[in-house]
Amino acid sequence: MRDKFIHIFLIIFLLGLGISCSRNHSSKETEGTQEQSSVTQESDRGSGRGRGMKQKAVGRGFGQRALGKRAGRGWGPDEVVVLSKAEMEMIEIQTEKATFQSMRSHLTAMGKVLAHPMRKAIVSYAFPARISQIHVRIGDWVKKNQTLVTLQSEEVGTAKSDFYKAMADHELAKINFEREKRLFDRGVGAKKNYITAEAGLKVAEASLTAAHKKLHVLGFTEEQVKAISETHQINPIIALYAPISGKIIENNAILGAMIDQGTEILTIMDPTLLCIDAEIYEKDVAKVRIGQDVEISVPAYPGESFMGKIRFISDVLNEETRTITVRTEVENKEYKLKPGMFADIKIYLNHQTAVLVVSEEALLDEKDEKLVFLKKDGKYLPVIVEIGIKEGGYVEILNGILEGDEVVTKGNYQLKSKLYDEILKKAGIH
User: I want to staple 410 with a disulfide (CB 3.0 to 4.6 A). Which of 94, 189, 195, 225 is the partner?
Assistant: First the structure.
């Protein structure tokens, strides 16, 4: 019985030892497989860099054109469009070569034409008066200091009368002072009388000065006051003169009408120099500088432009629109621009430089990027490009194509449709 038990124990021990060895061998095989898999993965990662570079090169299109940071989708070498003769006749492909042209980066905005604040004047009178003569009509050109209207004013008559009285009082006080001074110098005049005469002369001088200044307040020039003092004519007449040279754009003068300080009798504007006020968004403020060239166009003259320069940039941001006002001065020698017109402006940010350009018609939207088709060896190749500024129907190409490349400008929409149709067929969707 004892020998039987020992025999059974040996059998169980040998079986357990065999199972353990089998497990160890299996574990080693698994580890070896994992190590091999790991090595394979590392190898794949190392070679993956090569494949990535290859895909990126393919994505550039034929000729491996660099796309910079915006390589976009990678087009395979077989993802090209080949048209049959019948398709060529139907689509009518047109192409042009990418060339270098002078172009300037610019900022666009909408503005409004305004009269220049230093070239506009309102003619009015600060005292009640009646219009007795009108010397100009609306639309007339006037020169600075030209007579515009003649007024009759009670204030003027009173001021002239006071001026003549002050002149007479001053003359009398002067004579009295000189007489008292001679007597006092000879020792026969009283000092009290001399002092009184001196004081009277000073009072008369002050009154004359006040009356003289009153005439200036009423609008008389120094030459006119001198003429008044010589003629001694008391009349309530005063003429208003043009403060600037320009054109009469408003005329509210009516013969015989009464006016006051709130009446705008005439408005003069010099239309040879105007302003355009435009609103620039907050994000573009740093790009704008005083003195930059500005191109102005208005709907009234399509295809024609006017050049000006930025003269003022507002220091206050409009919190509602998040914009600032930029003012441009523009010469208007032919008087085509009119205050109140709406205008489109281009603020040029730099000097002209030669850049690679194609027509805007060549560009197609490809998600967030731009796509063009190149014609080469009878095939049409899709290429993602990076664009820059636009001007005159052309767009700058920063990356993607080279000078002399033949770019499709007409029929590119049909090419894109055919390209994706072929891609779907290869994917088994059609």
Answer: 94
Ramachandran class of 241: left when φ > 0, alpha when ψ lies in -120 to 50, beta otherwise: beta
Extents of the domains making up the chain: 85-103+353-426, 106-117+270-348, 127-265
Rounded to 10 degrees, the C-alpha dihedral 124/128/130/136 comes to -10
Q: How many CB atoms sit inside 10 A of residue 94's CB?
A: 13
User: pLDDT tens for residues 343-378?
Assistant: 999 999 877 778 899 999 999 998 889 999 999 888
**H-assigned helices in 187-269:** 191-218, 222-231
Contacts of 101 (CB under 8 A, 6+ apart): 354, 355, 357, 394
The residues with which 357 forms a beta bridge, in sequence order, are 99, 396
Task: Give backbone dihedrals phi and psi of 309, rounded to 5 degrees, phi first.
Answer: -135, 150
Share of the chain above pLDDT 90, in %: 58
For domain 85-103+353-426, the CATH class is mainly beta
User: For 61-103, how does the pLDDT look when each residue is reduced to its tens digit (9 = 90+)?
Assistant: 333 343 333 334 445 556 788 887 778 778 888 899 999 988 7
User: Each residue of 228-274: pLDDT tens digit?
Assistant: 988 878 889 999 999 999 999 999 999 999 999 899 999 999 999 99
87-91, 120-124, 274-278: segment of lowest average pLDDT = 87-91
Farthest-apart Cα atoms in the chain, separation: 181
Q: How far, in Å, are 206, 235, 348 from residue 209 at the CA level?
A: 5, 20, 57
- 8 A C-beta contact, residue 361 and residue 409: yes
Q: Residue 109 pLDDT more than 60?
A: yes
**Residue 203 neighbours by CB under 8 Å, 6+ apart:** 173
Map residue 195 onto helix, strand or coil: helix
Report the length, in residues, of the chain: 430
**Rg (alpha carbons) of the chain, rounded to whole number:** 47
CATH of span 106-117+270-348: 2.40.30.170
